[in-house]
Design a protein that fits this description.
Bound molecules: nickel (II) ion
Number of strands: 3
Strand content: under 5%
Radius of gyration: 19 Å
Helix content: 55-70%
Order of helices and strands: HEHHEEHHHHHHHH
Shape: globular
């Protein structure tokens, strides 16, 4: 079942018909329900009361809400990880970054899982298991959805920036690192995040060019980096 979902035989948002699955997989209802529960725990499927079980498929609003929390929580995980930094942590993160750089051109499920592993490693090494648990709960469906729909590609530079932050060689604030990282792929609007831009200032929306970052987002950035996001958007 897991393979069918990851391989795309079952599509995001598709309803899982227990009768059909039980027939096709040749298993009875009880083990099938157990398997579905396990997949739900992993974030691969979502069950909705009185509607059934569905392959995970997040809407835009849900993704924005998750990312608004990731900016705050993953920034804290980055800072904690930097505090607890050891050569062993450095080696493991570097190995993953290099692997990602090797495969980053391929939009594969493998790439998506490497990226996920990299983020999870940082959460784990924050040394705060509550923080790790919350991040796992909120972000896992996002990484799964990503793996299923548009595998992670070409964001390797940003993972190296995260790595450099942990090594203590990056001048950006943790929030700015996360904001840069998430903006690469997602819209961060001010509806759910005080770090977000108002919809009319979103980089991928045609119209007025972005001239300034919002006040709040600016106040969180070191002085010399304040115009960075804007410059970055112009470049893209
Ligand atoms: Ni990432």
């Amino acid at each position: 079942l897991r393979e069918a979902i990851v391989a795309g035989t079952l599509n995001p948002g598709e309803r899982l018909d227990e009768d059909r699955l039980s027939r096709e997989l040749g298993v009875s209802r009880t083990p099938l329900r157990e398997a579905l529960q396990e997949l739900e725990h992993e974030g691969l499927v979502i069950s909705r009361p009185r509607q059934g079980t569905f392959v995970v498929d997040l809407g835009d609003e849900e993704i924005q809400k998750i990312n608004s929390l990731r900016i705050v929580l993953e920034a804290e995980a980055l800072r904690l990880c930097r505090k607890k930094f050891t050569p062993q942590i450095e080696r493991k993160l570097l190995t993953l970054v290099e692997k990602m750089e090797e495969v980053c051109e391929q939009a594969s499920v493998e790439t998506a899982f490497l990226v996920w592993e990299f983020h999870k490693m940082i959460w784990r090494w924050s040394g705060n298991d509550c923080l790790e648990r919350v991040l796992n709960t909120i972000a896992t469906p996002l990484f799964i959805a990503r793996a299923l729909q548009h595998p992670h590609t070409s964001s390797t530079r940003h993972h190296r920036t995260m790595m450099e932050f942990i090594q203590g060689t990056c001048q950006q604030s943790a929030e700015e690192v996360m904001l840069d990282h998430l903006r690469l792929r997602y819209t961060i609007s001010d509806e759910f995040s005080t770090f977000g831009l108002a919809p009319q200032n979103q980089p991928n929306v045609p119209g007025e060019p972005v001239t300034t970052a919002p006040e709040h987002a600016q106040s969180n950035l070191p002085a010399d980096r304040k115009q960075r996001n804007v410059v970055e958007q112009d470049r893209r």
